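WARN no homologs supplied; continuing
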Amino acid sequence: MSSFVGAWRCSAIGQFLSTLKYMAKSPLILAALAKDAVRHLDFVQVKSLNAGADGAFDTALLTATTGEHYVVRIANTQSAGTEQEVELQALRALGTEGRAALPFKITSLIGETKDDKGARALIFDFVYGSPIDVGSVSGESDLARNIGLAIAAIHKLPLATVENAHLPEFQPEDILKARTAELDRFASTGKVPPILLSRWEAVLEDPSLFRFQPTVVHGALNGDTVLEEDGRQVAGILAWSSLRISDPAEDLAWILGSENDPFADAVLAAYSANRPGVDASIRQRAVLYSEYERARWLMHGVNKGDQSIIDDAVEMLETLAQDVEAGAIGRLTAAPIAPIVAEPIIEEYAETFVSIENDDEFEIIEITETVTEVADEEVSLETAPIDVIAEDAELDEIAAEDQAVERSGYVDDKTRPIELPEKSDNELF
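OK structure emitted
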């Protein structure tokens, strides 16, 4: 879905000036910038990777004479430029040791230059792989297991990886406070069904669900940023600008929101097996975060004043509300179990005694009685968590817009795997 970094609030004038500064670049211009940055490489083909004129980045895929592929990228807006700088910081933070601990490929910066306006053009090596359709992945597949292993590997990185790089750090109380503030903003729109507001509020009011150990998290995992190879392996992971210390459930939200229960169960099983001691409520929080995305999409539409986005989000929220009301989606919180009244105990027994009529006569009498005993008190069971069947506004206020999926046609090239060019007529150098 989206990065948690950057919902930068610019004025209309600021946006205009930013657009003037960062004008869209043609593939040939990007290729020329790449050649200037890495003079030892010669490129023979170039292909645009832009998703549209309003994309945050201008990006192109370059094919070198050696057959290797590279990506050149330049920010189109001030906010995109800031996000790019944060990602560079994260990539440096991972370092050699961090990369060695991860069972997949991460891109590396191999060169940079500036255009005539002073905007930075960055050249990265290409991460091969294909997007993952989580709805179609079998729960018995190697891919499901390897996704769980990949996420666990990220969460097992030393906290110092983030701390030393001065990247964001959030404790459970910070996250709970931020999620509560988000819920208030959702409610203020008047467009979120009350049953969902109540459902989410119940989670936030249960402190037991937010007892977890913060870990290193990627922060923007989804079917586009996690790339697979041969339907079995996790080949690479893109978009590291949201690297931080936070709730590990954030990286599992896209899994629990897939509505592919066998797949989700398999991923969580592999994940838990490789992260001993993971908190018992991680699934509930992951479901909460996945459901929040629908409301964040609504907020994105409201903030942009885009009625088509608003209508789309409202439809998704209403569908979710209907599923909750119908019981198609399980509870997120522990539910009291109704008291159990002890069943009556029915017992039969016989007594034998002697009836004496007079000194000379007596009779042996056997009487059988049925006795019913009922317990004096009800027997109650303690409340127990119920498995969820269905399933940050950056954690202060700056992530609500960037959390939404750009369903209007805009796709951030950082969160979209790049298709290799089949053929190009552009001959370079």
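The radius of gyration is 30 Å.
OK
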